[in-house]
Design a protein that fits this description.
Its main location: membrane. By secondary structure, this protein is of the alpha+beta class. It is 44% helix and 25% strand. The structure holds adenosine-5'-triphosphate and magnesium ion.
Amino acid sequence: MFIDGRGHITLANRMCDDIFQADTSEWLEHLYYDCIHDHNFVLFIQYVFLTETHAHEQLYFDDGWSVKHYEAYGTPVTNSKSQLHGVVVVLHDITGVKRLEEIRKDFVANVSHELKTPVTSLKGFAETLLNESMENQDVQRQFLEIIWKESDRLQDLVGDLLELSRIETHNFQLNLQPIDLSKIGAETERLLRKKADDKSLQFNVSSEGNKEMIGDAARIKQILLNLLTNAIAYTGEGGEVELNIYEEAEFIVCRVSDTGIGIEKQDLPRVFERFYRVDKARSRDLGGTGLGLAIVKHLLEAHEGTIEAKSKPNVGTMFTICFPKEWSGW
Ligand SMILES: Nc1ncnc2c1ncn2[C@@H]1O[C@H](COP(=O)(O)OP(=O)(O)OP(=O)(O)O)[C@@H](O)[C@H]1O
Ligand SMILES: [Mg+2]
């Protein structure tokens, strides 16, 4: 936008219509402060006129529906005798950058919060053990167990965070090989059998048809582990957890289902977000930080796979993942 020495707008490009949500061709030959309603922007232009120096500021325009952020640049235009001809102002839309900044801030806040809780309790229990002459061996042991559990959680959290950031780097590469999903399913079952037995859960694994595909065995194992760990964690004593692997025309499908507490409809689309937990208090008791499904989603995307979740509160939950058979890497 160009504003001449008298303060009249003499040029406004087409983008101005979008930015100001107005027909800015009608602004031409009018005083800028009569046309522009945003007080801060008017002040900004005024500043450039008064100081006759280059200025640069972040502004935002709120039209009641949405907020748009702009980087505003203003430069005086002078002739060879240093007389002011007018001012050029340029607005650069930085709404997307601002949004990313928000996400980053949220993320840091979440991580710090998640780290703070176990660290506080580690410190508290260690302090008590150190300060008080504790005769009672049982209580001592109890405290040490809490310390062990909390440090274990901390280790999981840090591990998950590292895993997520590794997956998100540009040069993240899968170690692709011909794999057999039923083998991976069986390995996962072996790892989790005890956890399921401890809760007296019925844990069934079945596989049918051809389950050979191209994929990264370690990553797919991680996907199944995360889903099944959830199924076991969020299912009460005596319930059922199932892993079915089968073949469809174009896909190899893995289905993890449980007869657990379920997820309310409004929470379902959000469970894949980092740190999202349906019931924070309960989930934390179970040791969760809300990163498991975010990792699952990323790893699946790397395999061009999809995931779908269905659930009914107090009935159970079913996660279905599909790997395209055709996919052979890239
Ligand atoms: N099978 C399930 N049944 C009921 N709720 C589930 C199930 N799977 C996931 N959820 C809900 O979705 C949330 C997110 O799951 P996610 O695995 O990402 O995190 P988490 O289990 O809390 O922590 P972690 O990072 O240790 O896996 C859980 O906190 C839980 O509320
Ligand atoms: Mg989990």
